[in-house]
Design goal:
mainly beta, about 0% helix, four-stranded antiparallel β-sheet, globular, about 110 residues
């Protein structure tokens, strides 16, 4: 059974940084395309980034140049480094395997002064 456990969220001031982690289980992490998504308050969940096997990445326009997705296959962990955060980045962040319909609990990121 696939599971996704996100961590690393918190309260940060505008311009600050956070690094999110995701530890999935129930499948072979190394072989899978992994994605980050977020759900801002009162809005629908949206795709943020894709991290391919081997480390290639693809981002939604609003986070390009500020967020970096990465993976450590040895640790079975997915990361999202978020820099220069703005209040518009406030959301619950989720990771997922591409094509999965399972979601974890997510981790709350709040950007506020």
């Amino acid at each position: 059974q696939e599971q996704f456990v996100e961590s690393g969220g918190g309260l940060v001031q505008p311009g600050g940084s956070l690094r999110l982690s995701c530890t999935p289980s129930g499948f072979s992490f190394t072989d899978e395309i992994m994605t980050w998504h977020r759900q801002p308050p009162g809005k629908a969940r949206e795709w943020v980034a894709t991290v391919f096997p081997g480390g290639a990445t693809f981002y939604t326009d609003s986070v390009k140049g500020r967020f970096i997705g990465s993976r450590d296959d040895a640790k079975n962990t997915l990361y999202l480094q978020m820099d220069n955060l703005t209040p518009d980045d406030t959301a619950v962040y989720y990771c997922q395997k591409h094509g999965s319909t399972t979601w974890g609990q997510g981790t709350q990121v709040t950007v506020s002064s």
